[in-house]
Amino acid sequence: ERLFAFDVQTGKEVSSIDIAPAPQRISVATNQNGTETVAVVRTHSSSSEGLGGVTLVTSRSGRLAIKTEFTPPDQIQFTRANNPIIVPDLSVAFVPSSSGVLFGFSTETGEMETNQMIGSDLLGIALHLRTRTVAVVRRGTQGDEIVIVPFETTESETEASAPVITTLKPDQAEQGRRR
Predict the structure, then answer these.
(1) What's the rounded Cα separation, in Å, for the pair 169 and 117?
(2) What sign does the dihedral 86-39-162-105 (CA atoms) show?
(3) Cα–chain-centroid distance for residue 9?
């Protein structure tokens, strides 16, 4: 139940940190000063302790440090298929759940900014910045479906550089089926 950073030139371990329950899927985003933010999905199982959720880790020259954690409400589960994504300005991250809920949370505080019931088991997501949309793959009765979910960000009155999600509109989402 550890996350490791390695030097790609030598293959030697640079640092590691404990993440419980065991880390599963990750995403990485880099800010302007070169610090990386790593979003790590934690999945709860009967053999592991700790709650499922997302741990945000900073990495500066391979030195890892926990920044914050997002823990969803009770009864929400993540699976090994759930990948997090981080908006490139590092303000918001999204993560789907096996419970059918798409979450948006602050990468600074770990607090939930929004959640939206998409339906059924959500598998993976991808971000499209130009159209300000998140594509979500969900398990359907007749096969997997892709739901396109628009999102908006606005600047906070207290901190002009920290956008927050104000709406997700699945009722206006384009949907398609994969056969």
Answers:
(1) 10
(2) positive
(3) 29
pLDDT, tens only, 116-164: 888 888 888 999 888 888 999 988 888 889 999 888 765 444 444 444 4
Confidence label for 16 from pLDDT (cuts 50, 70 and 90): very high
Calpha distance 77→168 (Å, rounded): 21
The angle formed by the CA atoms of residues 65, 75 and 134, to the nearest 5 degrees, is: 65
- DSSP of 107-158, one letter per residue? TTT--EEEEEE--S-EEEEEEETTTTEEEEEEEETTEEEEEEEEEEEEE-SS
Closest by alpha carbon to 85, among 37, 148, 149, 16? Answer: 37
